[in-house]
Design brief:
By secondary structure, the chain is an alpha/beta fold. Helix content is about 45%, strand content about 10%. It has four domains: about 100 residues, no CATH class; about 170 residues, 3-Layer(aba) Sandwich (Rossmann fold); about 190 residues, Rossmann fold; about 130 residues, no CATH class.
């Protein structure tokens, strides 16, 4: 079926895609030799040529034994030396082009990965196995070291999966490479990944986004292919949550490349594009998996009391999980408690505070150094209505006082404690999980363990038949989840339905239509929609139809406003002064729910009603 998507292949391309063609060439040569051997020759001239082409003496002319010997010798040398050398050279050259990624193709309808990062393996697997693209080529384009990238990817793929992937050498910031090597204009889906060792990774990915936006417009095509661009630096990713990324932002990169700037087409491409960060995507999957109600998610239980999340490791994975917890896990009448543990917690805390200053300036947080037995530094909450407490603990994970702390939490907060272990050391993460205080296992505290490889350890901890001690352990990894299913996920569909439902009820405010939303607003809608799943679960609303009383609607609206306050502060907004209104990064709605105007309170209730309406639709399995 691949031939339907690619035309005008050169011989070298066919050879690189179909190595069996070499056998066909050899068969043709053999056929020519045999034909030359059996043709009845009538002229001496043709007899001589026939002898030259035939490695077997054919004539019985007793007067020309020397000539026959010479012709036979020349024929043998020709076939054993010349032809074989040519074929070997052709095979070697073709093989080198394949290994080096310099073979030339013409792609159409392919899935294009521009760059390679080990974190993308899960996404690559999703695309290979997707039914929608089972007849499409999967193209991985890297600027160098094609062979090593191929070997790294093949280590994680089956033989059948590996056959689907084509590797080429291509620079994502070179217009000619994007056009003539990657055929980006013909791609059905694009992932801008970049290289893991680049110092200016995010800048180059944004530059690539601009080049693609300029070269992608096609006549008669109004909706560009979806483009996902990876922002490795979490600060850059959070920046997209704060600003409206408009076509003019890409003008400089486009004009520098000598391309025409068409504001309309660039704007359309940006609408079809989505920023992502692998750790943020994994964190969202951990908290809201497709099998959420089956327990295959880090669900916080707020029925018995205030939920408490303990996160080992202030790594990119740990801080991403912390941020998603703060932006989604808020419950009526409860207070969210997050504890971050790291050997270098003080320095990491300062980095985190600098990144999210408006939030930490206004919430309650503490710092405690167990290694020196320093008294906790306590920062009081400036906004007394925030329902969040954050603690930072500096010590080694095996510190005795930390063990006592976990034992106390597991005893005191039975049913409300959850633990995530997110250091960069996978074996150590598993060891920390297995050697938790016994009371942690006895109380079935959820323990989620991050692995930088795969989740093969799940097969062992889930089959603990002897005493079922480790049944509460779940392993998640970079290989488990991809980001390509974002727009087809139930979370995305739920957020889109809620946003469009609100826009339909308020026709004079069309900016709420999903297709017009900027990434920052889409993410806000996404967090707002999926967080209500946790709220409904803790209200006992696990099955459809969901029926809420007015009191429950008010409780959910209050919890949603607390969540919204936290989200805005995390994304850089600050509370506005009395009478100031909404200005640049100051919002007059960051207030206690009791001080909201009635219109805003009703809006929060409408959002809850929209979520409930969507979940009650037949066939919905989002819960």
């Amino acid at each position: 079926m691949n031939c339907l998507y690619r035309t005008k292949l050169t011989l070298g391309e066919k050879m690189s895609r179909r190595p069996t063609a070499i056998l066909w060439i050899l068969l043709v040569i053999v056929a020519v030799v045999i034909t030359a051997s059996i043709i009845p020759w009538k002229f001496n001239y043709w007899k001589a040529i026939g002898s030259l082409l035939s490695p077997v003496p054919m004539y019985q002319d007793s007067h020309r034994h020397i000539l026959k010997f010479i012709l036979y010798l020349l024929g043998t040398i020709f076939f054993s030396g010349g032809v074989i050398a040519i074929v070997n050279n052709f095979i070697r050259t073709t093989g080198e082009r394949y290994v080096n990624g310099t073979a030339r193709y013409r792609f159409r309808g392919h899935v294009l990965f521009l760059g390679f990062d080990p974190l993308m393996i899960g996404t690559l697997r999703n695309e290979i196995d997707s039914a929608a693209v089972q007849h499409s080529d999967i193209v991985v384009a890297v600027p160098d070291q094609v062979a090593s990238v191929r070997n790294e990817i093949h280590r994680h793929l089956s033989t059948e999966q590996a056959r689907r992937v084509i590797f080429i050498r291509c620079s994502r910031i070179n217009v000619d490479d994007l056009r003539k090597l990657a055929w980006a204009k013909k791609a059905r889906k694009i992932f801008i990944i970049g290289q893991p060792d680049e110092e200016t990774h995010d800048t180059l990915n944004l530059k690539c986004l601009g080049l693609l936006a300029a070269i992608y417009p096609q006549q008669g095509v109004e909706t560009p292919a979806p483009c996902y661009y990876y922002l490795r630096n979490q600060s850059t990713f959070y920046m997209i949550h704060r600003i409206e990324y408009r076509p003019e932002s890409l003008r400089k990169h486009i004009l520098q490349a000598g391309l025409a700037f068409d504001k309309k087409s660039v704007g359309q491409f940006l609408k079809a594009s989505e920023p992502f960060n692998f750790h943020e995507s994994i964190a969202r999957h951990v908290l809201f998996s497709d099998n959420y109600m089956s327990g295959d998610a880090l669900r916080l239980n707020a029925v018995a009391g205030d939920p408490h999340v303990v996160i080992y490791g202030m790594t990119p994975m740990g801080t991403a999980l912390m941020r998603d917890v703060l932006m989604t896990q808020h419950f009526p009448g409860r207070r969210l408690h997050v504890t971050m543990i790291d050997e270098n917690a003080r320095a990491e805390m300062h980095n985190l505070i600098g990144r999210h200053r408006p939030f930490f300036e206004n919430c309650h947080y503490t710092f405690n150094d167990l290694t020196t037995e320093t008294t906790a530094d306590d920062h009081p909450a400036q906004l007394d209505f925030l329902d969040v407490d954050v603690d930072f603990i500096q010590c080694d994970a095996s510190h005795p006082r930390l063990t006592d702390y976990l034992r106390e939490c597991a005893s005191r907060e039975k049913g409300t404690l959850a633990i995530a272990i997110c250091t960069q050391d996978s074996p150590r993460n598993m060891a920390l999980a297995l050697y938790m205080p016994r009371i942690v296992f006895e109380n079935k505290v959820p323990i989620w363990v991050y692995q930088t490889g795969d989740n093969s350890m799940n097969a062992f901890v889930e089959n603990d038949d002897q005493n079922n001690l480790y049944s509460s352990i779940r392993v998640f990894s970079t290989m488990d989840y991809g980001i390509s299913d974002r727009r087809t996920s139930w979370q995305w569909q739920l957020a889109q339905a809620v946003s469009d439902n609100y826009a339909q009820k308020h026709p004079f405010d069309p900016d709420y239509r999903w297709e017009f939303l900027q990434p920052m607003h889409r993410w806000s809608s996404l967090y707002g929609a999926i967080s209500k799943i946790s709220m409904l679960h803790n209200l006992g609303q696990d099955h459809t139809p969901i029926l809420l009383t007015n009191e429950e609607r008010t409780q959910l609206a209050l919890a949603e406003h607390n969540r919204w306050n936290t989200e805005k502060l995390l994304n850089g907004w600050e509370p506005a002064a009395p009478g100031e209104g909404k200005t640049l990064f100051r919002h007059d709605k960051i207030v206690d729910y009791r001080h909201l105007d009635e219109a805003s309170k009703e809006k929060d209730k409408e959002q809850t009603d929209a979520v409930v309406k969507e979940l009650n639709r037949p066939g919905k399995v989002a819960k």
